[in-house]
Amino acid sequence: MTVRIDLGQTEAGAPALMDLEELLATRLLVQGNSGSGKSHLLRRLLEGSAPWVQQAVIDPEGDFVTLADRFGHLVIDAAGHSEAGLQLAAERIRQHRVSVILNLEGLDTEGQMRRAAAFLGGLFDAERAHWTPMLVVVDEAQLFAPMAAGEVADEARKVSLGAMTNLMCRGRKRGLAGIIATQRLAKLAKNVAAEASNFLMGRTFLDIDMTRAADLLGMEKRQAEMFRDLRQGHFVALGPALARRPLPVRIGAVETESRGAAPKLTPLPSQPLEDARALILQPPAAEAPRPRRAPPPPPPDILAQLAAARPAPPPALPPPSVEQQAERQRRLEAVMRQVLADPDSGYRPAAVLYQDFLVRCRIEQIGSKLPDMGAFRRLLAVGKAGVPAEMAEGEDWAEAMARAAPLPEDLQGVFLLLARAALAGAPCPSDAAIARAYGTRSASRARRALAFVEERGAIVTRPDLTGRRIVTIAGPGWETAPGHPEEEAVA
Predict the structure, then answer these.
(1) pLDDT score, position 134
(2) What's the rounded Cα separation, in Å, for the pair 400 and 15?
(3) Who is most buried in 122, 196, 257, 351, counting CB within 10 A?
(4) Predicted pLDDT at 423
(5) Three-class SS state of 481
(6) What are phi and psi of 103, to 5 degrees?
(7) Sequential DSSP letters for 281-334
(8) Helices (DSSP H) in 318-466: which residue ranges?
(9) Average pLDDT for residues 24-45, to the nearest whole number?
């Protein structure tokens, strides 16, 4: 069913009809200077569409509250509600399909912007099941979607502009049809105005506004002067819901009265000058003396309060016993064996293995004071050497650990691997085994590492008659069995 709203008459005397269903899909922009009949046009449109579609009016001056008596709109005084309350009310309005007027009268500009943004946000964020058609009329839209920053806070301007942009750009899919009215096109954000496909342009005098109005209507610049000559209540209409070509229309009468009508001329009261002087210049009544207030207490000492509120240190825990330390060390070594169980662990950087080690320690709930990087490297060297438990508990292995300490951390694993083989009488580790202990896959780097340890005086290497390598640990004289450098030794 096609619903057409009678706005008034064209110049030819024919009815000026607006297709309501087309309006819901294409939105409307109304422009006109103060006194051009802009609010009268909105009232005519609201009255004509009230029986057919749900309405929401953003009313900064309280001009439209009189619609409630005639058409049953719910009037919400925004000054008495928080932003969160208005957002929730907007969601319920869409749920119950109640027409509403948001009265922003009495609020400063920033307060109007914030509350209007919250209300529009509630309409926009309603659940999909409640996306029914709704006309959203915003009077004085340049207040809520300003072209440039003004005296209000930048955060309030961004929130309000974002809500207006959502209404005009993305509201159609949610059933929201924006109708925005402004006194100055030049003061209205372009991305908001550009989303309207229907226009009703009224009287305006500034060149920049006339030029922009003519551009929106597809008129030539020389025709823009006609907007100065429009009378009150006369507009030029264009758009799929109105007319395919610019069409002058005269807005018809309305059923309800506006609270924002301009004051009428009334005669001045006949008042003798002396009486007027006495009424106006009468001295104010004497005020009763105000009791003196006690001086405010000095501000509290914040540092003292913080010191008093500081929690007491936890009681010192007794030092761990020898058994507890041994158990902790055993668990750390078990975690290290888990880390080294990965075949590629011998070739990964120590920093990567350390992160894996810390994660596994937390999983095992070993405690908060975990080994640092230096202690981890020593554990890693022992783990790579593969020392059996009975050997690790002997005095010889303690001496081997002491002799490895002066060496660089990355070479301690190489030395301990050789010491372990010497203590066990096993063949000398191959270049591949030494490379794994050194953290590389390169046999040449393994040989250089072995030569460096020998230069530090920690070991002595010599070949036997068949060319196999023998390593002697300097000092105690422990010696490995002959082992071929290119064969993997078997422990």
Answers:
(1) 93
(2) 107
(3) 122
(4) 86
(5) strand
(6) -90, 110
(7) SPPPPPPPPPPPPPPPPPPP-HHHHHHHHSPPPPPPPPPPPHHHHHHHHHHHHH
(8) 322-340, 350-363, 373-385, 389-392, 395-404, 409-424, 431-438, 443-455
(9) 88
